Amino acid sequence: MRNSLFILLFLLCSMSISAQTTIPGRVINRENRKPLAYAQIQTSDGRQILTNIDGSFELPLTKDTLRISISYVGFKSLTTLVHRSTRYLQIGLTPSFEQLNTVLISSGPNPADEIVKRAIARREQNDPEKALEGFSYNSYSKFIIDNEYSQIELTADSTSATIETIIDEGRAYLSEKVSEHLFVRNKGSKEKVTGIKTAGFEEPVYNVLAMEVNPLSLYKKDYQLYKTEYAGPLAKNALNNYEYRILDTTSTARPAYMVYFKPRREKVVAGLEGILYLDTLSLAIQKAKAQLLGAVKLEVVHDYKYYPEKDIWFPSEQTTTIRPGSGGKEIAVFGGTISVGAVQQKKGILSTIFGSKQISGDLYLTSTTRNSDINLDFRGEISNPGAEIDVTAIAPERDSVFWASNRQIEFNIRDKATREKVDSLIKVGNVKRKLQVKNAIASGSYPLGFWDLDLSKIFKFNNYEGIRLGFGGKTNDRVSEKFNLKGYTTYGFKDEVVKYGIGTQIYLNKRKGTNLNFFFSRDIQEIASFDYLKGQNTFSILEPRFVNINYFYNYRTYWTSLEHRLSPKLNTELRLGREEIWQIQDYSYLKNNNAYRDYELSTATLSFLWQPFSKFLSTPGKTILLEKNFPQFTGQIQQSVAAFDGDFNFTRIGLKAEHEIKRLDQSRTEFILEGNYGFGDLPLTHAFHAYPNNPNRSNIFRRFSVAGRNSFETMYFNEFYSNRQAMLHIRHQLRPFRISDSFQPEFVFISRHAIGDFTDISDHQNINFNTLEHGYSEAGMELNKIFAGFGLSAAYRYGAYHLPTFKQNFSFKFTLQLQL
C-alpha cells in the first residue's frame, strides 16, 4: 500500500512538471496606473489574447519561455519575454498620440460612433430574426458549476487528502440539453428540447431552462442574461447608453472593426463592457465579448459563422462564465441576486442550493451552447406555439447512445466523475427537499411529508372575526400522482364560528393543466366582492384590505369545476355551483314585493386568463411560466339561474387588463383597467365595490393601516356600491434612490379613478350607500422599502366626491413589500 502511494505521488509530481503553466497578469496605463481593458496580447506561437475589463489576463505557457507583444490603441506597443518561473506579470504601456489608419475609419468627431450608427441602421439586414423568413438549427448546451482550480498540494502529511481530492474530482453541478430550434417570422420561435439530463436528479431541474443563459441576439433593445436586463450595444438608442472606441481591425478573410463599448450612464442604465467585431462590409456582428466586473465577474462570448448565400452572420456558439468578484454590481441567478456574500460567504444562494456551508473562492458557473445543422430556409410549422420551450416526453429518458451522438462539446473525465459525486452531494445537502420547499412556497404552501400546508390559512385578522386561526392544505404526490385531497378549517375568536372546506382535485392531463375539482365549504365572504377564478394571486403574506373589512355574509357552497389550458397562454375554468346565503348584517333584497334575507343561487361561471406576451415552458408534467410579460387579460362571466331551486336570475361580467412598462433604469409604470357589469335580479352581496381601503374612523391616525397595491386608500368601506363600474389604476415608480447597497428606497406616484352607477337602489333594504356616476379620483405617493420592506403611503381624495375637511380626504398608511 505504501509503495502504491509513493508511485501515485511520483506520477502526480511528474505530471505537474510537464503540465501547462498559467501566468496571471495585468496591463495598465503607465502614467495613471489605470487598467487597459481589451488590450491585445500576441504570442510568438500565434495566439491572440485580450485583457479583461480590469486589465487582467491569464497567459498559458507550454514551454519554458514565450515572447509576447502587447498593443493598445493610443499607446506604444511593447514586446517582452515571459519565463515559466514568472509568478505575476504587470505590464505598463506608455500613451502615444498616433492615429489609426485613416482608410479603416470614417470621418467625424468619433469614428467609432459613426460605425455604430451605420451598424444600428443595418440591424434589419443583419439580425437573423429580421432578415430571414425562417430558420432552424440544433443546439447542445452544457451548464456547469465547478471549482476552477483543482490544485493538489503535496506535503508529507497530505497523502490521504490528495487521494480524497482525486476521488472527489467531480463537479458540484452539471446539466446537459439537446434542442431543436425553430423560427418563422410573424409566428415566433420555439425551442423543442429533445434531450435533458441533470446530474444527481431523476427528473431534470427545469428551472435551468428558464434562466436565459444563452440569448440568441445582440441586436435587441434589451439583452437579458440570468434574469437581469442590460442595454443592448446595438439597440436603437445605444449611443445614449454606451461610449464606443475603435481598437483595431482584424486581418481575416472578412475583416472586422474591433469596437470597444463601455456604459455611458452606468448608475442609471445597466450596461455591459466589451468588444464588438463588426464586419467592415455589412457591419454585422462577427463576434462579441462582453463583461461585467463587480460583485461577480461575468463574461459572455458570442461567436458567429458567415453564410455567403444569405450574406448573413449566424450565431454558432456562446459561452457564459460567472466567477466571484470584488463587490459593486450584482447579477440575478436562479431567480435571485448574486452578490459577494452570495457567492463567497455563508448562506449564499449557491450554498443554499447545494447544501455547502462554505463556497470556495474559485467557484465558477459556466454555460456553453454550440449550434449545428443550421437551415436558413426553414418554412415549416411550429407546433404548440404558445410555449416558447417545449420538453418532449422522451427528453428526460435519453440513453447514453443518444448523448454520445448529440454532444457537440467534449464530455471529459471530470464530466463523467460528476455523476458519481453529485448523487452523494445532493443527498448530504438535502437538495431535493430544498427544491421541493422552494417550489411549494412559491404557490403559498409548505410541504410536511405527504401534506402541503396552506400558509394563507394559518393566521388572519379582520374587524368581524378578530383573530382568525386555521389549518389547511392538500396532499401531494406522495399520496397520489393522479389526484389530491384538500381542505381547511378556521376559527374566528370574535364571532366564535368555525369555518371549513373540503374537496378533491383529479389530474386528467397534467401537461395541459386539465383538472376536475369538487369542493364543499362553509365560510364568510365580503359584500359585493368579485373574485376572478383565474389570474388571482392565491397567496400573499398580508392582505391589507382584509384587516379592515367589517361587512360580510355567510355562505355554504357546493361546486364542481373543470380547468383546462386551451394553450400555454390561455388558461380557463368552468365552474358549476350551488350557494346558500344568509346575512350577518340587517340587509334584505326586495324582489316582486318579497324581501329576501336568505336565499339560494344556482350558478355557472366561466373564467379565463390570457397572457399573449408571456413566455412558457411546457414539460411532460406541467406548464411553467418562464417570464411574465404584459399586457395580460383576465375575464369572467357568471350566470345565476332561477332554476334548480335558485331564487335569482342575474348575470355578472368582469374584464381586467394589466400592463407594465419596465425600463432599463429600473423605473416602471403600471396600468390596471377593470370593468364590471351586472344585470338581472342582482342582490348587493353579488354587486361590485371599487376595492375601498379606508376604515370608517374620523381621526387620520386611527385609520393608519397597511395600504393595498390596487385599492382606493381614501375611499371608505361600504361608501360606494355599483352594478356597473370601471376603474383605472396608474402607478409610476421612479428609479430607486441608491443611498447605499442596503438602502435603496423607491418613490411611487399613484393616480386612481373610478366611475359607476347602480339601478334600483330602493330594492336594497336597510342599507345606505352612494354611487359613482360623477367619477371618483384620488392621487397618492409612496416611499417604499425604507426599512425591512416597510414604507409609507399618503393619498388625497379630490373631484366630485371631495369631502369638506382635509382629514376626511387624506389617508396616511404603511406600505409593506415582502418577497419570498
Automatic annotation (TrEMBL):
Keywords: Signal. The keyword Signal applies. Residues 1-19 form the signal peptide. Pfam families: CarbopepD_reg_2 (PF13715), DUF5686 (PF18939). This is DUF5686 and carboxypeptidase regulatory-like domain-containing protein.
